[in-house]
C-alpha cells in the first residue's frame, strides 16, 4: 500500500483576484515552495460541473454533469442535480480504492448536494451544512450555510479528519456565499480569505509531507444586467424557454442568475432563426448549437439544451418576469469567470502540467496507471 497521501482543496469562487487582495502567507508559501498556475475551469463555470470534473478527473462529456439543473429535452421535465443519479464516471475515491492506492478516503464539502453526488468510494463523508453529531461535538456547532463561518468550520473539520484518520486521499470543497456578496477588497472578504489561509497553514503544519493542491471551481464578477433569453426569443417569434445553468436551491447566493444558459426550442425548425436572434440579444456574447457546444466545451451531448449561450462580462441570464432588467449582483457561469488558480505543493508535477483545474484529478488518475486525456 502506498504511503503517498494527497489533499485537494477547492476554494469555491477562489479566483486570482480574491487571493491577490488578501493576506495569505500560508498559501503564498505553498506556491513559493511548489507552484502557482493560472489555469482554466470547465465551462459552464458553475459549482456542479467543476467539482464533479475535479473529483472524477474528467470532462462533462465523460462524467455527464453539465449543469446544476437538468431539463430533459424530450419531456421538458426539470430537476435539481443533487445526487449521483446523473453521474456517469467513477470518483477519484473509487479509483483510488480499486487501484490499491488508498485504504481510506475522505470527502468534506459545505453543501449537502455535493456530498450526495461525490461520496461513492469514501470512508469519511462530511457536509458542513448537516454534519455528523460527533463532528459538531469536536469541531463546533453547525454554522449557517449563508456565512463565512461555515467554510471555517469545514476546514477545522478537515484538520480533525486528517489528524484522526490520515486518509491517503482527501477532497475538500467550500461554498461561495461570501464571494457572491463581497468584492475581493471588502472587509468581509478579506477576513474570510485570511481565516481560510490561517486554517490551511495549520493543516500544512500538521501534514508537511502531504501532496497538496488548492484550486477553485470558478471565479466571480459583478453583474449589472439580467436577460431572460427565453422571453427574448419568444418576443421575437421563436417560442422557447431558457434555464440558467447556475440554477439551484441556494438562491440567496445568486438569485438563480448566472452567465450561461441552455435554451430549449418548441420547434427545432426554428434553430437557425433562434441562433441569429440570440446573437443580437443584449449581453449574449457566444451562441452555440448543442453539437457545437458539446464539441467545443466537452459537454455530454444528451445533457444540454438545444442551444448553449454564454454572457458577456456584465450580464447574467435568468427566468425573469420581464425580458431584461438592471441588477446589482456578483455571479459566475460565463467564460469571464473561468480563469482559476492551481497551487501545488510537494507535487511530482510542474505548473505547466495544469491547463485546467480538473488536471488535479486527471494527473492523479494517470499516476494510478489510468489514462484520462
Summarize the model shown.
The chain is of the alpha/beta class and about 375 residues long. Helices cover about 35% and strands about 20% of the residues.
Tell me what you see in this structure.
By secondary structure, this protein is α/β, with parallel strands linked by helices. It has helices spanning 16-21, 25-33, 47-56, 60-63, 92-99, 112-118, 133-139, 149-165, 177-181, 187-206, 229-235, 251-254, 271-279, 290-297, 359-367; strands spanning 6-10, 35-40, 69-71, 78-80, 105-109, 124-127, 169-173, 211-215, 221-227, 240-244, 260-265, 284-289, 307-311, 315-317, 324-331, 339-345. The strands form 4 sheets. A 7-stranded mixed beta sheet has the order 2-16-8-1-7-5-6, sandwiched between helices. Strands 10-11-13-12 form a 4-stranded antiparallel beta sheet. The chain has a 3-stranded mixed beta sheet with strand order 14-9-15. Helix 3 packs parallel to helix 15 and helix 8 (149-165) runs parallel beside helix 10 (187-206). The longest helix is centred in the middle third of the chain and has 20 residues, at 187-206. The radius of gyration is 20 Å and the shape is globular.
Layout of strands and helices, then pairs:
Blueprint: E1 6-10, H1 16-21, H2 25-33, E2 35-40, H3 47-56, H4 60-63, E3 69-71, E4 78-80, H5 92-99, E5 105-109, H6 112-118, E6 124-127, H7 133-139, H8 149-165, E7 169-173, H9 177-181, H10 187-206, E8 211-215, E9 221-227, H11 229-235, E10 240-244, H12 251-254, E11 260-265, H13 271-279, E12 284-289, H14 290-297, E13 307-311, E14 315-317, E15 324-331, E16 339-345, H15 359-367
Parallel strand pairs: 1-7, 1-8, 5-6, 5-7, 9-14
Antiparallel strand pairs: 2-16, 3-4, 8-16, 9-15, 10-11, 11-13, 12-13
